[in-house]
Write a structure and sequence with these properties.
The complex is a heterodimer of chains A (about 450) and B (about 325). Chain A is of the alpha/beta class and about 450 residues long. Chain A contains 18 helices and 12 strands. In chain A, the strands form 3 sheets. In chain A, strands 1, 2, 3, 6, 9, 10 and 11 form a 7-stranded mixed β-sheet that branches. In chain A, helix 2 packs antiparallel against helix 13 (about 345-350) and helix 8 packs across helix 9. Chain B starts with a helix and ends with a helix. The chains are: A alpha/beta (about 450), B mainly alpha (about 325). The interface of A and B includes residues 202 and 261 of A.
């Protein structure tokens, strides 16, 4: 009887240990020995865990591990964009479970640095590698004197267009937005089933980049004064841009499908949209889509300008490597963040297999990259023709520490605009009000 | 209870000479109780670890206020005061309330009619039909919503072709004006089969002699259905309603999945649950999200309690 009783107690104790065991086992700050996607070459060296989302990243990790005896990278693909941020955000809140090094888009760096989730890399030698990266991408990754991440890739913008559709409708390639509007009307008049371009209300960083081209500077923020923020999303430049697009929408010259849905992807490749206003990673995205029209002839031209005499280059997207404050060994983690995409060898993989556009100057300046011919664009040297120039002209941007909220609000305002409920100016005024209210509620001192 | 009242009053027993036997019984009881605890323990452990403890932690979190710029402070019930005056939360509650008004009757009517028809059929087709109506419930909610996303799509969906046959333009099922009806359709499709099975089982439990008696009294098929069958299964109907009510107030998965293809028509705060989700995971407002969740819990609890109280006669609780 007694042995039976003890046996039962034993079983329950084991069950209890199994249930609660997981929380006890993985307390080893950020550097938990999670299962790596990649192979560890040098098993004796300390490991640094990395979250990154490119499938082609595996080879980049191999290159790094093969050339390092002092540290090894343990890579996990924790999802792209918001999927990964949700996990990271939860590990910040629970104070465990974050990786040592994490890939983040530059637009969310402030959102995480304000929660003390990222390490300022200046004391780990970040400024020594500053010269290797473009000025714009370095500004995106830093705030004031602090550097929160090492840039990886960027998204200088250009215009991908269907040469065959343009020729069929007799349209010249537009170089200014005025010509662009004329081309949209001409395509419609030619009896085409499709439209010149799509204006997605959920474009987020895409819409913001269009505003920036007209001089809009939505946020002023410096992490050394974390409670002060300047919000100016409804300046005249942004209003002019939005009124321009709303005009095209209300005239039925452009569609307003949500971006990155199955419908949108199909429209991109079957000729419904004759133009894809894209970042430099756009060609890679486009080639990855299935069901493409086999007769499609794609080409790349610079993004149309407001003032052809004074062109303004803008950027859409781009990612970085940041070291989290949960990192076990911050020195080694910083070494990984700076080293992963810090060599020509890894960048060749990134360019050829990952379709990345480097923020890494030695690669940008190389003849190899400039002369690269893209079979998808009929052998056009798209970097030399368009994107290198766009990248060189990009001066950097500042994002708010509540960028997700700002984007969600922007989407709602743009949607109600294309529904005809308000004009562009009203949409941006409402956006300004809601962001100022939110920032004040969150304890910021707001200046315009 | 009734039996003990009928039992004769206990005879005035003489005090027992010793108290040992009673103590023995006590000890045996306690021994049994100990075993009882042991049997309950595995459940209790999981229950406490995965429900009670997280709830307590969430409640503790909801009593604090954190802002991005100024950090966290303990503010007692300020978050709740904010929640019940937050226009976004109240708007979401209003939205699920109007969903409840449309969606629950729609599901009930479909389920009831299907159950009544199946109850009357005795052909080989009835088993097949029963299965077919139930099948949508067997599909995971996320998969169902994704599938409907494609069916609603202007490009991939069948609507364009069907409307094209008669020369009409198909409606856009994912626009601001139609998204409400589109969501009602998904939920009804998903749940009506499940409710149908519950109602059907209740119908099967009725003694057929009652139908015979009704028929002898001159009732026709429709009268038997509405005047005999429906009142006799009212307790099952109330149960179904409670399920539907709680499910609707916590409406989350379908709009969250459809949002991927209709971000404008379905804002992040479309329902209170979605609002709590985005507050926590997109805006890192974990404290306010906890408060919103508890506030929603209070509303769900009050709503279901009120409903059960009002229908206590039909549900057989009284």
């Amino acid at each position: 009887m007694k042995t039976k009783f003890l046996a039962s107690v034993g079983i329950i104790a084991v069950a209890a240990a199994a249930l609660t065991g997981c929380s006890a086992g993985s307390e080893s700050s950020g550097s938990s020995k999670a299962s790596c996607t990649n192979k560890i070459v040098n098993a004796d060296a300390p490991q640094v865990s990395v979250w990154a989302w490119y499938p082609a990243f595996e080879e980049v990790v191999d290159v790094f591990n093969n050339s390092h005896d002092d540290v090894q990278v343990c890579w996990t693909n924790a999802g792209q964009g918001n999927d990964e941020y949700t996990k990271f955000s939860t590990s910040i809140e629970s104070k465990s479970g974050a990786p040592d090094v994490i890939q983040l888009e530059s637009e969310v760096l402030s959102s995480f640095s304000i929660r003390n989730a990222l390490v300022d890399l200046t004391e780990f030698g970040a400024n020594d590698v500053k010269d290797k990266y473009t000025e714009g991408s370095w500004k995106d990754a830093s705030s004031g004197d602090a550097v929160y991440a090492i840039p990886v890739d960027g998204g200088p913008m250009g215009m991908l267009y269907r040469q065959d559709l343009f020729e069929a409708a007799g349209i010249a390639v537009p170089t200014t937005w005025a010509e662009f509007a004329t081309a949209a009307a001409a395509l419609k008049a030619s009896g085409s089933d499709g439209v010149l371009v799509n204006f997605p209300t959920n474009g987020r960083a895409f819409n913001q980049a269009l505003f920036a081209q007209a001089g809009s500077v939505p946020f002023v923020y410096d992490s050394t004064k974390p409670t002060d923020i300047g919000i100016d999303v409804n300046d005249q430049g942004a209003k002019d841009v939005l009124d321009y697009w709303n005009g095209l929408v209300q005239d039925g010259l452009v569609t307003t499908d949500d971006a990155f849905t199955a419908d949108y992807n199909t429209s991109l490749v079957d000729g419904t949209y004759a133009v894809y206003l894209a970042a430099a990673w756009g060609p890679g995205y486009l080639q990855g889509l299935s069901d493409a029209d086999e007769n499609a002839v794609w080409a790349v031209a610079p993004l149309p300008q407001w003032d052809a005499a004074n062109p303004v280059q803008v950027n859409w997207g781009g990612s970085t490597f940041a070291v989290t404050s949960q990192a076990g060994d911050k020195d080694l983690s910083a070494e990984v963040a700076m080293g992963l995409f810090g060599t020509d060898e890894s960048w060749k993989i990134g360019v050829e297999k990952g379709a990345l556009f480097p923020s890494y100057k030695p690669m940008l300046d190389s003849d190899y990259f400039a002369n690269l011919e893209y079979p998808f664009f009929g052998g056009q040297q798209i970097n030399k023709d368009v994107f290198l120039n766009a990248a060189a002209g990009y001066a950097g941007a500042t994002f708010s520490p509540f960028q997700n909220y700002a984007y969600d609000q922007l989407t709602e305002e743009l949607y109600s605009m294309v529904q005809g409920e308000q004009d562009g100016s009203q949409a941006l005024d409402d956006l300004q009000d809601s962001l100022v209210t939110y920032a004040t509620e969150q304890g910021f001192t707001v200046t315009k | 209870m009734a039996l003990t009242e009928l039992a004769p009053p206990p005879a005035p027993a003489k005090p027992r000479p010793t108290r040992r036997p009673r103590r023995q019984i006590d000890r045996m009881d306690r021994k049994r109780q100990r075993w009882g605890w042991l049997f309950v323990a595995p459940f209790a452990l999981v229950f406490v670890t995965f429900l009670v403890a997280p709830l307590a932690y969430a409640f503790w979190m909801s009593l604090q206020t954190s802002t991005l710029a100024t950090g966290t402070s303990f503010t007692w019930f300020a978050n709740y005061a904010k929640a019940f005056t937050d226009p976004i939360f109240l708007e979401g509650l209003g939205r699920v309330a109007s969903f409840a008004l449309i969606m629950i009757p729609a599901q009930m009517i479909v389920a009831l009619v299907a159950a009544l028809v199946l109850d009357n059929l005795s052909t080989a087709l009835s088993k097949f039909s029963r299965l077919m109506i139930f099948v949508p419930y067997a599909i995971p909610v996320v998969i169902g919503a994704l599938m409907w996303g494609f069916l609603y799509s202007p490009r991939f969906g069948p609507a364009t072709d069907i409307f094209g046959l008669v020369g009409l333009a198909a409606p856009d099922f994912l626009s601001q004006g139609t998204i409400f009806a589109s969501l009602v359709n998904i939920v009804t499709w998903q749940w009506a089969g499940y409710y149908m099975i519950i109602i059907y089982a209740a119908l099967r439990g009725i003694d057929p002699a009652i139908y015979e008696a009704a028929r002898l009294d001159g009732a026709n098929g429709r009268q038997i259905a509405l005047r005999v069958k429906v009142p006799m299964i009212s307790s099952s109907m109330v149960m179904v309603l409670i399920f539907a009510l709680i499910g609707t107030l916590q409406f989350f998965t379908e709009p969250q999945v459809l949002r991927a293809v209709a971000q404008g028509a379905i804002p992040v705060s479309y329902t209170p649950n979605m609002y709590a989700y985005s507050l926590a995971f997109s805006y890192s407002q974990f404290n306010y999200a906890s408060a919103i969740s508890f506030a929603l819990g209070i509303v769900v609890f009050a709503g279901s309690y009120l409903f059960l109280f009002l229908t206590r006669k039909q549900s057989g609780l009284k």
